[in-house]
Amino acid sequence: MKTSRLNKEIVIKCAMELVYESGLNGLRLNKIADRLDVKSPSLYTHTGSVTDLRHAVVRRAMEDFREQLIDSLLGRANLCAFIELGKTWAVFAKNKNAFYTVFYQKEYIDSYEKYIAVFLRAAFDRIFSECELTSKEINQVERVMTNYFRGHAECFTGNSFNEADLISDLEIIYNGILQNFTKVSQ
Description:
Blueprint lengths: L7 H15 L6 H8 L3 H8 L2 H24 L4 H18 L1 H4 L8 H19 L7 H17 L1 H5 L5 H19 L5
Helix pairs in contact: 1-2, 1-4, 4-5, 4-7, 5-10, 7-8
């Protein structure tokens, strides 16, 4: 693919395609250069180092993930919002596993906090607004859900993914949160 005007956006898009094919560790500037029909040194202007490019690609995937999560909440509230958020999370983990599995790696955890965790806490604050959760409690809900999806990552990528089981799990988690955090009026 000969590009007349090389820019960062084109390089990131190409890099994302390569990650889908061979994983993040398979991302190489010479592979991108071959695909874009340019010389490798010309990519450094747009990407910096391979490490910088990996971070940019993972950030872009996180932004895409966050946008999908936002879309899943539109027009929904309470349990319905919680389930749709969870289903969207699972579908992303299944379809974009090359990225999803690196979100929780040590070198990307700051980006995860900035692009995903902050959004999730705001979403859970809205979903559980009737409970009037404290910041600490919202953080706990975010950790529970993140740990649930991290722990089930292999399930979502394999043939063992069952949406009915996911929904059942989400209903149990949701009801447990309501039960544990609903304030009793005196």
